[in-house]
Design brief:
- This protein has 182 residues and is mainly alpha-helical.
- Helix content is 85%, strand content 0%.
- Helix 3 (57-80) packs antiparallel against helix 6, helix 6 (99-123) runs antiparallel to helix 7 (128-151) and helix 7 (128-151) packs antiparallel against helix 8 (154-180).
């Protein structure tokens, strides 16, 4: 870590990933992925703090994108492998509350993800590449999630899962490319 704020956040991330998530959150029925998304989002805040020496909106908004994206991503996987998670005793939302509830939650969390990603476009110096990537891949992710509501199969859940990967990967690449020209 480069400075005190990033060092403190780095230690918090280690604590969340190694203790809080596996011991406290993962056994919680249905919402463990939501709370676990906070640990994933910390990486953006750590990076921002390492560069700027403070915690600010530039790190908080990407962290929110990852935080909201996490359940929209993992609940799709939970629906695709619902029986395996149930046999393993993992209380994912599709197991404990059913797939209908999980599909609704995926849509809600995707909406929050898209709002956070859009807000980042407005408050940061990111350019047209980021905005177009967010719109295009966000549209693909939304299409896959809406399709899941109609198809209701493991294959549709996996398409939504893969669309979530493409969305976040493309978004992060666009941030990297757009921020390198600023």
């Amino acid at each position: 870590p480069r400075n005190l704020p990033s060092a403190g956040l780095w230690l918090l991330a280690i604590l969340v990933y190694s203790v809080v998530y596996p011991v406290v959150l993962q056994p919680q029925p249905g919402q463990d992925q939501v709370l676990g998304g906070a640990g994933g989002g910390l990486q953006a805040v750590i990076g921002w703090a390492a560069v700027t020496g403070s915690v600010g909106a530039g790190g908080a908004l990407p962290a929110l994108v990852v935080f909201w994206w996490t359940p929209a991503h993992f609940y799709n996987l939970g629906m695709a492998y619902r029986e395996d998670y149930a046999r393993g005793g993992f209380p994912m939302l599709p197991v404990v509350r059913g797939e209908t509830t999980a599909r609704k939650h995926v849509l809600y969390y995707l909406g929050a993800t898209l709002v956070a990603a859009g807000a980042l476009a407005f408050v940061s110096p990111l350019g047209i590449l980021y905005a177009l990537t967010t719109a295009a891949l966000g549209g693909v992710f939304l299409w896959a999630v809406v399709s899941l509501h109609y198809e209701r199969t493991a294959a549709a859940a996996m398409r939504a899962f893969h669309a979530s990967n493409a969305f976040l990967g493309g978004l992060l690449l666009a941030v990297l490319l757009d921020s390198s020209v600023v």
